[in-house]
Specification:
By secondary structure, the chain is mainly β. It has one helix at residues 3-8; strands at 19-21, 26-29, 34-39, 42-43, 51-52. Strands 1, 2, 3, 4 and 5 form a five-stranded antiparallel β-sheet that branches.
Length: 68
């Protein structure tokens, strides 16, 4: 997933920041408790494709390009 793309993407509902869940290959909006899938390296930012997240499951915030 391109870090520059991750920096400009926002939640399509609230326009808030997204967190990247590398293991699940999802972009997560903690405010709306929705996870948007990443398929073949492409974020699917459609509300109909998002899934409800489990409350209390932390997702790490996006990290700058140089961090692992």
């Amino acid at each position: 997933m391109d870090a520059r793309l991750l920096e400009i993407l926002v939640c399509p509902i609230c326009k808030g920041p997204l967190n990247y869940d590398r293991g699940a290959q999802e972009l997560v909006c903690n405010a709306d408790k929705l996870a948007y899938p990443i398929r073949d390296g492409i974020p699917v930012m459609l509300v109909d494709e998002a899934r409800q997240t489990v409350e209390g499951t932390p997702v790490e915030p996006l990290k700058p390009v140089g961090d692992a």
